[in-house]
């Protein structure tokens, strides 16, 4: 099977988001959002909706910085754990996709999934 | 499990700029722990330097002997120094804890159950270090003020009026120290600390009289 070229035309097409939801339902793709003590991270792993390569994508809502007195500090926003959290995911597969630049990853698509968060008590 | 996910609406597609910013933010998030501990290490060295400077200045500029100041002033000095040093040590301890961390073993299963992802675990560690660092900074400020107040108090404390009249008298094989109450042909009368009556020493037994505060 020949790998698909890197996606330049419709990287954000809703078709990828739609297909991703089907993969989530079938278990070929999995998304998790974890919350603890006001911190939140998300991990998405499984089959890419476009190239079908396996990939792992991780992101977080929070960072701890040491920028000095002018650091922009944020306070926790109270959110309902029953709410769905949107995660914008990019394919991070290791497959070969023609046209991909050195600084780019995966097959070039960006899609959204919406997941209920898992809250871990301190 | 069916409602774990929801199908996004078609007009809620990812924004490419937000996605690009997200990549940058994730890089920042990934280095949270390293940046906080590095900062804590700098603060720890800074706190140590600050304490050294304040204490050094105190030793150079203060009177030669703290026993020369009146008791009331000496109590104030003791409190300011004692609390200042205690707060300073507490601040150094917190900064050290933030810089070096507290070694602990954690199992992957425990990490997954309690934090979900390695990244969230590292973020929690970073946040804890940042909290320690904030407390260390506050302690440094308080300790500096207390030690500076102690130094200024020492500089401005009046001399102990009794110290100027204190002498150490060697008489026979004994040695007595006290404040001179009276001196006449019969001998020398001293008010000795913690002794209810004055001590009278005949001149015939005195071999030396040395002025200076009692130990």
List the helices and strands and how they pair.
The complex is a heterodimer of chains A (about 120) and B (about 220).
Chain A: H1 14-26, E1 29-36, E2 39-47, E3 54-60, E4 85-90, E5 110-115, E6 118-119
Parallel strand pairs in A: 1-6
Antiparallel strand pairs in A: 1-2, 2-3, 4-5
Chain B: E1 5-6, H1 16-30, H2 32-61, H3 71-100, H4 108-114, H5 118-156, E2 166-171, E3 174-183, E4 187-191, E5 199-202, E6 206-211
Antiparallel strand pairs in B: 2-3, 2-6, 3-4, 4-5
Describe the structure.
- The complex is a heterodimer of chains A (122) and B (215).
- Chain A has 122 residues and is mainly beta.
- Chain A has one domain.
- Helix content of chain A is 11%, strand content 31%.
- In chain A, the strands form two sheets. In chain A, strands 3-2-1-6 form a four-stranded mixed beta sheet. A two-stranded antiparallel sheet of chain A has the order 4-5.
- In chain A, strand 1 and strand 2 form a beta hairpin.
- A five-stranded antiparallel beta sheet of chain B has the order 5-4-3-2-6, with no helix packed on it.
- The longest helix of chain B has 39 residues, at 118-156.
- With 215 residues, chain B is α+β, with helices and mostly antiparallel strands.
- The relative contact order of chain B is 0.12.
- Chains A and B meet through helix 1, strand 1, strand 2, strand 3 and strand 4 of A and strand 1, helix 1, helix 2 and helix 5 of B.
- Strand 5 of chain A pairs antiparallel with strand 1 (5-6) of chain B, so a sheet runs across the interface.
Task: Give a quick rundown of the structure.
Chain B: Keywords: Membrane, Transmembrane, Transmembrane helix. The complex is a heterodimer of chains A (122) and B (215). Chain A is mostly beta strands and 122 residues long.
Spatial strand sequence of the major β-sheet of chain A: 3-2-1-6
Strand content of chain B: 15-25%
Give me the Rg of chain B, rounded: 32 Å
| Helical fraction of chain A | 10-25%
Q: How are strands sequenced across the largest beta sheet of chain B?
A: 5-4-3-2-6
Name the poorly predicted regions of chain A.
68-74
**H-E order of chain A:** HEEEEEE
The largest sheet of chain A, given as strand count, sense and whether it forms a barrel, is: 4 strands, mixed
Query: Please, what is the average pLDDT of chain B?
Result: 83
* DSSP helical segment count of chain B: 5
């Amino acid at each position: 099977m020949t790998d698909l070229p890197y996606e330049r035309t419709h990287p954000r097409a809703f078709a990828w988001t739609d297909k991703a939801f089907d993969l989530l339902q079938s278990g070929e793709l999995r998304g998790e959002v974890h919350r603890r003590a006001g911190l939140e991270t998300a991990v998405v792993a499984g089959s890419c909706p476009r190239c079908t390569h396996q990939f792992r994508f991780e992101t977080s809502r929070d960072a701890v910085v040491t920028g000095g007195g002018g650091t922009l500090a944020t306070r926790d926003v109270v959110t309902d754990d029953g709410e769905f959290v949107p995660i914008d995911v990019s394919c991070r597969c290791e497959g070969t996709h023609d046209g991909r630049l050195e600084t780019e990853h995966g097959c070039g698509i960006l899609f959204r999934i919406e997941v209920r968060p898992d809250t871990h008590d301190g | 499990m069916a409602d774990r996910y929801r199908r996004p609406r078609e007009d809620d597609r990812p924004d490419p700029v937000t996605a690009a910013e997200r990549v940058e933010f994730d890089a920042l998030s990934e280095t949270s722990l390293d940046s906080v501990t590095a900062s804590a290490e700098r603060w720890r060295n800074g706190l140590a330097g600050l304490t050294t400077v304040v204490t050094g200045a105190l030793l150079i500029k203060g009177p030669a002997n703290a026993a020369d100041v009146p008791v009331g002033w000496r109590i104030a000095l003791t409190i300011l120094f004692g609390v200042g040093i205690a707060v300073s040590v507490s601040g150094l301890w917190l900064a050290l804890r933030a810089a070096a961390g507290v070694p602990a073993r954690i199992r992957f299963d425990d990490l997954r159950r309690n934090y979900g992802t390695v990244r969230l675990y590292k973020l929690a560690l970073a946040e804890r270090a940042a909290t320690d660092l904030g407390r260390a900074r506050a302690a440094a400020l308080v300790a500096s003020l207390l030690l500076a107040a102690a130094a200024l108090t020492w500089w401005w404390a009046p001399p102990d009026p009794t110290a100027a009249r204190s002498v150490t008298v060697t008489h026979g094989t004994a040695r007595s120290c006290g404040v001179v109450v009276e001196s006449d042909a019969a001998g020398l009368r001293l008010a000795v600390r913690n002794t209810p009556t004055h001590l009278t020493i005949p001149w015939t037994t005195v071999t030396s009289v040395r002025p200076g505060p009692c130990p």
